[in-house]
Design brief:
The complex is a heterodimer of chains A (647) and B (88).
Chain A lengths: L2 H9 L4 E3 L6 E4 L1 E4 L2 E9 L13 H32 L2 H14 L2 H14 L3 H18 L3 H21 L12 E5 L4 H7 L4 E6 L7 H9 L3 E3 L4 H4 L5 E5 L4 E4 L3 H21 L16 E6 L5 H6 L5 E5 L1 H7 L5 H15 L4 E4 L24 H7 L1 H13 L6 E5 L5 H20 L10 E5 L2 H5 L1 H6 L3 E4 L1 H8 L18 H16 L3 E4 L7 H10 L3 E4 L4 H9 L3 H13 L3 H15 L1 H10 L43
Parallel strand pairs in A: 4-5, 5-6, 6-7, 10-11, 10-17, 11-12, 12-13, 13-14, 14-15, 15-16, 16-17
Antiparallel strand pairs in A: 1-2, 2-9, 3-7, 4-8, 8-9
Chain B lengths: L1 E6 L8 H12 L4 E6 L2 E4 L3 H6 L7 E7 L3 H13 L6
Antiparallel strand pairs in B: 1-4, 2-3, 2-4
Helix pairs in contact in B: 1-3
Classes of the chains: A alpha/beta (647), B alpha+beta (88).
Chain lengths: 647, 88
């Protein structure tokens, strides 16, 4: 691409950003299927079926009827071959996508409408099919449900298949060699049939992550990125590309640095996959039969698939603030309801814990009044209690999404009983409202509290009587308990997750929870730090919620440590007075028990990646002194995702 | 003619798989089968029709059956809805 065209694109609202090397372009789309590929692009252009309207003579009409019947038979034969290929290559579930296309093809309602119109209007059949499709398109587009709207893609494919057969054209659904396929859009059958060749990945301009094409790429384990508006017109067959299906990135003409980084990543993924593949479906259980739950921290719908593939048992923390941050204002009840139900539905039957808006502190609400101590200020549940309308909308949306009974709710920043009672009475009022309106919801939805304010630790016994679970938010807890602002570089080294006071507080909250018959989880960074796993297991923690990428490692550690041994480690840790001693003791234990994992942890702590900061197969080992956010290992080029782990 | 009112219980609503199951079941019977949601009515033997209903979890549908085997058909179809199309 020459300099002029580039300027042109940028002026017209470029859909890519420049990389670090000349000519490198980075596109950001939606991650449709995980995995990474490096290879040459192949730009696939579907042969368009053009339709023109004609009036038929009586002789032509009789012939057209026969041609239509023949086209349907041929279309059916094609689809049946695809069904059996899907069954062999994948499974019945994939085959069902194409079986339902056969049912659409044979839909009596549509066929009789077609034949009737052919008879009455005497127009060519392919035009009539096109016209009928447009009618259905307008009906589908009324649907509020994205899943349903995307089913129009199936109907379109069926219609195209009949029209193509009417025009007696053959389909060229094949590509040669190892390529990353670039297309404006891919149909479900393209996605499946291309996989007969050595396809490296798919990158498309349009299509959602719930489309059948995306679902098939995931089943086929072919990396895919969608929603790369305009890409297919800006790239040429033969261009070198990197496709990152985990982060939804496509890098054209990558620089040597990115190539090297992704080559290493591919090697690492292959190594880990081999090791972890067997782990995903295994229960998270110690050799002596103690079970714990491993769940994921999340905040975007498009993370869900990845979370599931990592072997998570649900979402232990779903952050809702992004809805506010993205819009700059609080989202409506309906907008929230749509998002929450989609998450509940995608994760079903696994549980999802929604945390109500936690805005304030470093997640700033721009209201023009700077606070002297934002972290001790108007944030979390405090703000919600001052904005009861907004709070009620969120509670209604969460309750309405709870009908499948896999949703739990939790409140951030709870510091005392009066506050909790106020929250619970609002929740009760909202439930009564819904009951009166005959709106269904899960009456027994579990209610949890985040334990992150030090006062909550000392009244945990009282709080536990009014809650179904606790979730310990270690990031804020450390900050408040040790009175250290982790963003202040002068004292950042005092931010110690392994501070004995922090660990004793954690242990005490777990014990108090258990004594009062409720379960206790943790959703702060500590929960996903492999160095802390054995200790937390020994403390009796019931649920660990973490960035999804570390789940396999943590699971591996838990599956190879007996509960008895973990208990002994925990006891020992609680007797050590210095955080340096605690870390040294845990490191020694891990080096002896999991030498490979430990060296991988150190290897990954070096921050080789400048595109995003969360792709490590191992938690960036919340470093000894918690400086991870300030040592320049994040950053780059505008594509960086915000660091997520602020709990 | 037999009329029944059903609520969609399964989480996915009448998406591809449940819609296919419904239409396949309906096809085993002779009777005519219509589904009405709000003021919108479609032929229950048409998969495209069923999909255009955009019936999500919690939707209330009016079913009507007319023909020789309407009783058997009504029972078979209602059972599918009651069992949430095997997705409960």
């Amino acid at each position: 691409m020459n300099e002029d065209t580039r300027t042109e694109i940028q002026q017209s609202g470029a859909n890519w950003t420049s990389g670090t090397a000349p000519g490198e372009r980075i596109y950001k789309g939606l991650p449709a299927s995980a995995g990474v590929a490096i290879g040459r692009a192949f730009v696939y252009e579907r042969e368009e079926v053009y339709v023109t309207e004609r009036i038929l003579s009586n002789e032509e009409l009789a012939l057209e009827m026969t041609l239509l019947d023949e086209a349907i038979v041929r279309a059916r034969d094609e689809l049946e071959k695809i069904v059996s290929f899907a069954r062999v290559k994948l499974d019945d579930k994939a085959a069902q996508i194409f079986e339902s296309q056969i049912m659409m093809l044979e839909d009596q309602e549509m066929l009789s409408a077609l034949r009737r119109r052919l008879q009455d209007e005497k127009k060519n059949a392919d035009f009539l099919i096109h016209d009928e499709l447009e009618k259905f398109r307008s009906m589908f587009e009324r649907a509020s449900d994205e899943l349903l709207r995307e089913r129009m893609a199936d109907l379109d494919e069926v219609g195209q298949r009949i029209m193509r057969n009417l025009q007696k054209k053959r389909l060229h659904s094949s590509v040669e060699g190892e390529h990353v396929i670039i297309a404006e859009q891919l149909t479900p059958s393209d996605t499946l049939l291309f996989s007969r060749n050595d396809v490296l990945g798919y990158a498309t301009d349009t299509g959602g992550i719930t489309s059948h094409a995306a679902i098939l790429s995931r089943s086929l384990k072919i990396p895919a990125v969608t929603g790369l508006h305009g890409l297919s017109k800006q790239i040429h067959t033969g261009d070198l590309v990197i496709l990152d299906g985990q982060h939804g990135l496509l890098i054209v003409h990558p620089c040597e640095k990115h190539l090297e980084e992704y080559r290493r990543k591919i090697a690492r993924i292959e190594r880990l996959e081999a090791e972890m593949a067997d782990l995903v479906d295994l229960p998270c259980e110690t050799p002596d039969g103690h079970k714990v739950e491993l769940s994921a921290n999340a905040e975007f719908v498009n993370e869900l698939e990845y979370i599931i593939t990592q072997g998570s048992k649900g979402i232990g923390l779903y952050r809702t603030e992004h809805l506010y941050i993205a819009k700059g204002e609080f989202p409506s009840e309906q907008e929230q309801y749509i998002e929450y139900s989609e998450i509940a539905f995608s994760m079903y039957p696994q549980p999802v814990i929604f945390r109500t808006f936690d805005i304030g502190g470093d997640k700033l609400l721009d209201r023009g009044v700077p606070e002297d101590n934002p972290f001790l200020g108007w944030r979390g549940i405090r703000m919600m209690l001052d904005k009861p309308d907004i709070f009620r909308h969120q509670l209604r949306a969460i309750l309405r999404a709870s009908t499948m009974k896999n949703i739990k709710i939790m409140f951030p920043m709870i510091s005392g009983m009066a506050e909790l009672e106020e929250v619970l009475s609002i929740l009760d009022e909202v439930k009564n409202e819904l009951t009166e309106e005959l709106v269904p919801f899960d009456e027994h939805m579990e209610v949890g509290l985040m334990i992150e304010v030090p006062s909550a630790i000392f009244i945990a016994d009282e709080l536990a009587k009014r809650a179904d679970f606790f979730s310990i938010g270690t990031n804020d807890l450390v900050q408040y308990l040790v009175a250290v602002d982790r963003n202040n570089e002068l004292i950042a080294d005092m931010y110690q997750e392994f501070h004995p006071a922090v660990l004793r507080a954690v242990k005490s909250v777990i014990d108090t929870g258990h004594a009062n018959g409720i379960w206790v989880g943790m959703c702060g960074e500590l929960a996903g730090n492999p160095l802390a796993t054995v200790m937390l297991l020994g403390f009796g923690l019931d649920e660990f919620s973490m960035v999804p990428s570390v789940i396999p490692e943590v699971k591996k550690i838990i599956r190879s440590t007996s509960y008895e041994e973990a208990h002994a480690v925990a006891e020992h840790v609680l007797r050590l007075p210095l955080s340096t001693q605690i870390r040294a003791y845990l490191e020694k234990f891990m080096r002896e028990r999991h030498p490979q994992l430990m060296s991988a942890m150190l290897d990954n702590g070096n921050g080789e990646n400048d595109l995003h900061d969360e792709d490590r197969s191992i938690q960036p080992e919340a470093p000894p002194d918690g400086k991870s956010k300030s040592n320049g290992e994040t950053q780059s080029n505008g594509e960086t995702q915000e660091p997520r782990d602020h709990e | 003619m037999i009329e029944r009112t059903v609520t969609i219980k399964n989480r996915t609503g009448l998406h591809t798989r449940p819609a296919a199951t419904l239409v396949k079941t309906a096809a085993r019977f002779e009777a005519e089968f219509y589904i009405k949601k709000d003021s919108f009515e479609i032929n229950g033997k048409s998969i495209i029709g069923v999909m255009t209903l955009a019936a999500e979890q919690g939707s209330i549908l009016q079913l009507s059956f007319a023909g020789a085997d309407e009783t058997e058909m009504a029972d078979a179809v209602t059972q599918l809805f009651d069992e949430g199309f095997g997705e409960l």
